[in-house]
Specification:
Length: about 750
Amino acid sequence: MLNQLRDIVEHVSRVEDIHQALEVFVERTCDAINSECCTIYLSNHQKQRLELMATKGLTFSGERLHIGFQEGLVGLVHRTAEPLNVAKASLHPDFKFFPQLGEDVYQAFLATPIVHRKRMLGVVVIQQKTPRLFSDTEESFLVTLAAQLAVLIASEQQQGNWLLQERKSSTVTGLSACNGIAIGPIWRGNDEPLLKDVSPASAIDIEKDKEWLLVAIESALTEFRRLRKQLDSDLNKDALAIFDLFTHLLNDPKLRGDLIKQIEKGDAADWALRQVIERYSNHFARMNDIYLQERSQDVRELGQRLLYFLYHSQAKEIKLEKPVIFVVNELTTTLLASVPRDKLLGVISLQGGVNSHAAILSRALGIPSVIGSNLKGIEADDRHIILDGYSGEVLLNPTAKEMSDYQKLLAEEQEVRSMVESEVREPALTSDKVPITILLNAGLGGDASYSFFDVVDGVGLYRTEISFIVKQAFPSEDEQVETYRKVLAYSQGKPVVMRTLDIGGDKSLPYFPMEEENPFLGWRGIRFTLDHPDIFLIQVRAMMRASVGQKSELKILLPMISGVPELDSALSLIAQAYHEVALTHPRVKKPKVGIMLEVPSMIYLLPVIAKRIDFVSVGTNDLTQYLLAVDRNNSQVSELYEVVHPSVLMALKQIHDACRYSKIPVSICGELAGDPIGVLLLLGLGFKQLSMNSANVANIKYVIRQSNLDDLEALANQAITKAYASDVHKLAFDYLEKRDLAGFVRPGKH
C-alpha cells in the first residue's frame, strides 16, 4: 500500500486550501482502503469537543456536527489516544447514536487519533456497512496517514488557519524575539524587490553591469554609515555591530571579486548578485550553531539592500502619521533602523530567527517583537491587534475585554521598564548584600567596538569565530592582533575572556570546507585547532600581543575540551606561544587559562584538572544538549531541550561543588544566566559569576537585588528534587510572583 500512501500524501499536499485538502484526503482514503465512509474530526480544546471537518459517506444537514470529548467511539479514541477497531460499532459499550449523521447503516469501525508532538489534534474514522474487523495492514495504513495528516494540520494551525470555527477573536503564535506588549494598528512595509524573485538573465553590457553593481555597493555603504551614526547615541556597540559587519563584507575583496566574476561570466548584475549571496548564505545556513546559522539571514539582508540599490538611486524615507505595529515578511536591521522609533510600537516578522541581528537590534531598542507568525488573514492596514512578546502570541480582532486587560498590562510593563532602567548602574548585590559578578557575552557581530562596560564587570565570553568566517582566508596574526586589541581597549580595564576558535564540523569556514556525518559530535572546537597547531598558535600569540600595554586582563578559554590529553596539549601550545611572544614583547603577561565546560565528561575530571587550569566557564547551552541528547535546533525534538531539567540542575550543582572544593573560579555563560528563572536557580546552586547578552543585563541585575541568597539556596535544593522541568519552572515562577517580579517573565507587573 506504499504507492497508495504516497499518492494520497502527494494529492493532499498539492491543494492550497486546507478544507479542500481534507476533502481530498477522505475521498482518496476511502478508495485506498475500499471503505464506504471516511470522516475527519478535529479537536476544539477550548470547548472540549470534536468537530466534523470533512467526510465521504455521512449525510447530515444543518450546523457542523459537534461530538464531546466524552461522547461515543470517536470521543473514546480521542481520550485514549489509541486506535479502535471493532466489527460492529453498535455493540460497543461506548457507542452513541447520532441520528443527524446517517451512520446507522455502517457496522465496521476503525478510528485512529491525529497527534502531533503529544498534542491531540483530532480523529480520523473509516467505516463499512458489512460487519468485519479491519486488517492489521489497513490499521497500520490509517495510522500512517493520520501521522502525515497531523503534520499538515499542525502547520496550518500554527500559521493562524483556525480549522474548527469562525472566531471573532483569534490568536496566532510565533516565537518571542523581544519581550513586551504592543497594542495598535497594523502597517505593512512597502513591498521591495526580493532577491528570490530575480530570474536568470544575461548582461547586455558587462562593463555597465559591473559599474551598476559598484554604484549599488557604494550606495549601500553610505546607508549603513548613516544608520549607524543615527543609532549610535541610543545603543551599545554590540547592537550596532551588524552595520560594521555589513561594511566589512562590502569592503571585502572576496565578495566584490565573486560578484564581478559572476558578471564577467555573462550574468546580469541582479542575477549575479542572487547567485553569490545565496552561496554565502547557504554556507552559514548549513551550520548547527544557532548564532552562526542565523548569520545566513544577515547575508540575505545584505543582498536585499544591494538589490534595492541596483534598482533605486537612494533609499525611500518612511513617513508615518501615527505609531504602528510593523508587519513584514522578514525583518531587517536597515528597515528597523529606518522607521522613526516614536512611530514603532512593535514588530511581527513572518520569517527570520530570534538570534538574527534584526532581532538583536529590536531587543536593544526595546521593541516588542514576534517572529514566525503567519498573519495571512490580515489584508488591510489600520487593523488593531495585540502583540504579546512574552508568549509570542498575536491577538487578531481582540475583544473589548482583551483590549482593556492588555492596556492595563502595558501600563504596568512601562512602569517596570522605567524602574529597571533607572537602576541599571546599581551594583548587583542580593538583598542580603552578597555581590554577584555580571559579565558580557560579546563577539556575534564580528566587531570589537563594544561600550557596555559601565554597567558590567567585564567580558565573560568573547567569541572569535565571526572574524574568521567573514574572511576569504585565515586572518593573519597581525589582523587578529588589531581585532583583539580593540576588544581589550573598549573593556575599560575590566577582564576579558577570549575563547579560542570554536570552529569545525557544523561551523566550517568558506575557505576550509569540512563535511561529517555527525558534526555536532565531531571535529570541532579544540579538536580542530589541535589538529592545526599553526592556526592555534597564531591566534593565541595574537591575543597575547594584543594584551601588551592594556589595562584589561586577558583570559583564554578553551572550547569543547573532553579529556585531559586535549587540555595538556593545548596548555603546552599556549606555553610555547607565550615564550615566543616574550622574546619580542618582554612586558607580556602570562594569561590565565580556563576551559569551557560543555562536555559532560569534564564534570567528573574537575578534580584531576584543578591544578592545570585557572578558571571554568560553563556553557549551559551545549552542556544541556549533550546531557539530554537533544539538538535544540531540530524541530522534531527541540521541545525536549529544557535548561532547567532536574538532571541539568544536578550536573550544575556537581560542577559548582567540585570547583569550590578545588578553589577554581567558575562562571556561567549560557542563556540560562540571562533568564530571570535561570538566575534564581544558578544563584541558589552557588554560582556568583554570570555572563549574558547585553539585552538581559538590566533585568537580571534588578532581579538579583530583590532576591535573598538563603531563600534561593532553599529554592534550588527543592528544585533538584523534582522529577519534571515544569515543576521547576512553577517553583521559580512562584518565587518571582511572591516578590512582585513575575513581570519579568510574563506581561504586567504583579
